[in-house]
């Protein structure tokens, strides 16, 4: 364990305190990909009745995107699109988007943030909901991108017999993508 700052309120911190804090905080931030990958693995074993568990679904969506020669950022978005399921079953896309926000483009961020309502087209009507809820986003420049993501990578990624790459294939991509691209949160 390293040295610690001595202030009790942030407003009382000094340059010397930040000389202690910043290097340690940077090391912690650098380990973020490890924590995200560990958190993703919490989805293993939880299927909620789906043909495969949520971890395999995530791997399968990323496998499909990689096989389709999508860029690394897109593949990582496919891998992490449902990572929020463990913490926010009812708002998992927003959690996934919050994790990805500093690292991905606006179009990929929008796609992750809105994928669930687009996926709803495939089953909302069985639950008494409007399957066309996604249409409220028709004017978005990212509508077609998100529809395509669901149609090609999210929707077909529930196949127990499909080839699915192991997490080790995607780990280096996650490490390369999870380098901050923006300093201001949206």
Automatic annotation (TrEMBL):
Molecular function terms, GO-annotated: hydrolase activity
InterPro entries: HD/PDEase_dom, HD_domain, OP_Dioxygenase
Keywords of the record: Hydrolase
Transmembrane regions: none
Domain (HD) ranges: 54-116
Gene3D superfamilies, sorted: Hypothetical protein af1432
Highest taxon listed in the record's lineage: Bacteria
Entry keyword Hydrolase: yes
PANTHER family noted in UniProt: HD DOMAIN-CONTAINING PROTEIN, PTHR40202
Protein name in UniProt: Phosphohydrolase
Organism: Cupriavidus necator
């Amino acid at each position: 364990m390293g040295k610690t700052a001595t202030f009790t309120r942030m407003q009382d911190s000094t340059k010397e305190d930040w000389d202690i804090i910043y290097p340690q905080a940077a090391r912690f931030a650098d380990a973020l990909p490890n924590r995200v990958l560990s958190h993703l693995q919490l989805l293993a074993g939880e299927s909620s009745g789906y043909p495969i568990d949520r971890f395999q679904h995530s791997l399968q969506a990323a496998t499909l995107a990689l096989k389709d020669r999508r860029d690394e950022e897109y593949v990582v978005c496919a891998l992490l699109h449902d990572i929020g399921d463990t913490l926010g079953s009812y708002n998992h896309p927003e959690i996934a988007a919050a994790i990805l926000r500093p690292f991905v483009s606006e179009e990929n961020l929008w796609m992750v943030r809105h994928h669930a309502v687009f996926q709803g087209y495939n089953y909302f009507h069985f639950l008494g909901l409007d399957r066309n809820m996604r249409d409220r986003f028709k004017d978005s420049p990212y509508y077609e991108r998100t529809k395509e993501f669901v149609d090609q990578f999210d929707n077909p990624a529930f196949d127990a017999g499909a080839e699915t790459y192991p997490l080790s294939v995607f780990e280096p991509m996650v490490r390369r993508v999870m380098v901050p691209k923006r300093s201001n949160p949206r």
